[in-house]
Amino acid sequence: KTPVEKTPPATTAAEGTEAFLNINSIPPSTCFLDGRSLGSTPKVHVSVKPGAHTVKFVNSDQGLTKTISVNVGAGETKAAVAKLQ
Prior knowledge:
The protein is 12% helix and 56% strand. It has helices at residues 3-6, 10-15; strands at 19-26, 30-33, 36-40, 43-48, 51-59, 64-72, 77-83. A hairpin with a 2-residue loop joins strand 2 and strand 3.
């Protein structure tokens, strides 16, 4: 009769509210998730809300930019990868 038995495991609770992105680019770049700078690629296991997200890659040294959209469901991990040219 402990309260722990009635509480769902943390992993189950997190699956409904969190999703993750693995962000990378070739060549390396500065990445922006929904307009917020995350710094240099790669970024692994970035926590996001489920739904559509915009990832922008900027390589100012070579004057390259690319923007992609990725849709990730609750509990999913998706790759957001771009080849800049």
